[in-house]
Amino acid sequence: MIRFERHTLANGLRVIVHRDEGTPMATTNILYDAGSRDEDPGATGFAHLFEHLMFEGTPRIPVFDVPVMMSGGENNAFTNNDITNYYITLPANNMETAFWLESDRMRGLDLQEERLSNQKSVVTEEFRQRYLNQPYGDMMLLLRPLAYSVHPYRWPAIGMDISHIERADSASARYFYDRFYTPSNAILSIAGNVDPDKVFAQAEKWFGAIPSGVPVDRKLPAEPEQAERRDLTVSRPVPSAHLIMAFHTGARNSRDFYILDLLTDILAGCDSARFPSILVRKKELFSDADFYLSGEADPGLVIFSGRLRDGVDIIKAEEAVSEQLDRLTAGHVTSEELDKARNRYESHRLMSYMSAANKAFNLSYHEVLGDASGINTETEQYMSVTREEIADASQRTFRPQNSSVIYYLPGKR
Description:
The chain is 42% helix and 19% strand. The chain folds into 2 domains: 203 residues, CATH 3.30.830.10; 181 residues, Cytochrome Bc1 Complex, Chain A, domain 1. It has a 6-stranded mixed sheet with strand order 1-2-6-3-5-4, sandwiched between helices. A 5-stranded mixed sheet has the order 7-11-8-10-9, sandwiched between helices. It contains 15 helices and 11 strands.
C-alpha cells in the first residue's frame, strides 16, 4: 500500500505527497497532461521539443542544471504520446530548490528565437540519428500511420516529419506553452522523507500565484474499428528482415490492458517464455522475438516485433507467429504460465517501488489516468486475471482483420 495525501491549489494544480522515511532523498515529479496526441497534424513533435526547451532556462535562472547539481540532485524528463514528465531527485532537506526551479519554468520559460533554434537543432539531429539514419529506426514512423487512420497516435512522440520541427517558431512554441504548461494541466507529486503539510505550504508558496490557464478541452477523434488487414512492405539497407504485427486493443484503464500485459509476459517476458523458446530456439525462425503493449491512455496496440534469421521466408515466419497466437484463442495457457507471469509482475512492482522516483511518477500517472489511488489497486487487477479471460481477449484481439503487418526487408530503399 502506497499511502499518500493530496491537495489541490486554487489555480488547479494537484499536489500529491507520499511520505517515505526510509530514504534521505525526495523526488519532485511534475507531469504535464500534454503529449504528442495533443499536437496539430501539421505541427507535430512539439511535446518532445518542449521536453528539451524546459531545460533551456529562464531570465531568472538562465542555466537550469546548475542549482540542481549544487543541491546534490539529478534531473531528467521524458515525453510520450500522452504526457510529458519532469523529475528532480535531491536530498529531502533541499526539496524547496526543486519547487523554485519547477515553478520558475512553469511561468517564465525563455522562448526567444536563439534558444528555440538551439533545441530545434538538437531535436532534428535526434530525429535523424534515431529514426532516419539508424537501421530499423523508421519502423514506428511506418507502423503508426498504417495502424491508425484518424487518431493522433498515428505519429510517434518524435513527430510525423522532421520538417515540422524545422518550421517551428517562437509564436507556435509560445502557443503550445501557454496552452499546456499551466497549473490546471499539471500534477505535482513528491515522494521521500518529507512532511506533507510542509510540502503543501511550499507548493502554495511557489506555485499558488501562477495563473491557472485555460482548461484543456481534449476532443480527439476516436479511431474506428479496423475492418480488414493492412499490409506494408518496404526495403531498407539493413542486414536482415524484420516482421512487425500490430493489433488494436483497449485503453490503459481497460480490463484488456491487464489481461494482455500478463499475456505478453507469457509470450515474451523472459528467456523461457514461448516466443524465445519456440520461435527463436526451437524453430530457429527469428534471432529475437518480442511482444509488448504500446501502453497509451487511449486505445493502443499490442505489437509483435521479430528479426528473422538469414534465409527464412517472412511469410512462413508470420504463419508461425499466428499459429502461436491461435493457440491462445483456443485457451492453451497453463496455470503454471499464468502464475509465473503474476509472480514476475509482483516481483517487478516490489523492486520498482523501492525507488522514491518511481513512486512519485506512478502517483502522478495514475492521477492523470483518473485517480492516484489506482497505484494501490493495480496488483488486484493483475492477480485476478484468469485463463478464460486470456482466451477471450485473444479471440477479440488477434483477428486478421484487426492486424497491421509490415514486412521490413533488406535491400535498397
